[in-house]
Specification:
GO terms for molecular function: peroxidase activity. InterPro entries: KH_dom-like_a/b (IPR015946), OsmC/Ohr_fam (IPR003718), OsmC/Ohrsf (IPR036102). This is OsmC family protein. The longest helix has 23 residues, at about 40-65. The protein is an alpha+beta fold and about 140 residues long. The protein has 2 domains: about 1-40; about 40-140, K homology (KH) domain (GMP Synthetase, Chain A, domain 3, 2-Layer Sandwich), CATH 3.30.300.20. It has helices at about 40-65, 105-120, 120-125, and strands at about 5-10, 15, 25-30, 70-80, 90-100, 130-140. The protein is built from 3 helices and 6 strands; from the N terminus they run E-E-E-H-E-E-H-H-E. The strands form 2 sheets. A 3-stranded antiparallel sheet has the order 1-2-3, with no helix packed on it.
Length: about 140
Amino acid sequence: MTNQITTKWLGGMKFESTNPSGNNLFIEASPEDGAQAEGYRPKALMLSALAGCSGLDVASLIKKMKLEVADFSIDIDANLTEEDPKFYDKLTMAFHFYGSDLNEKKLQRAVDLSVEKYCGVMEMFRQFAELNIETHFHKH
């Protein structure tokens, strides 16, 4: 199976990229002259792809395991190398689960399954970055 996208230059430092889902997105460099950027920066988009990929795995497992979770989020802190081409060499990915009745053991299992088995974007990141995964439980 292959994915095919088309990315079209819109002039200046802005591109529009198609997506197999049919939803297009804009990619831009940092805003110039105070212009409001509507688009995503390419490397930051990689982090969103990583969080989204793993997040979808975990959301699916929460549903499958019938777990009670009020909310969850994923924070990523990534270190960019100094030399060109700059790339992420280390990152910390923190899963935050919120709820009054969190099954910590099963939620940790869901995170582990995504990190170790299911998330293809995670596997790609592993080829070039040192990954540190954290899980935090916030009971209320």
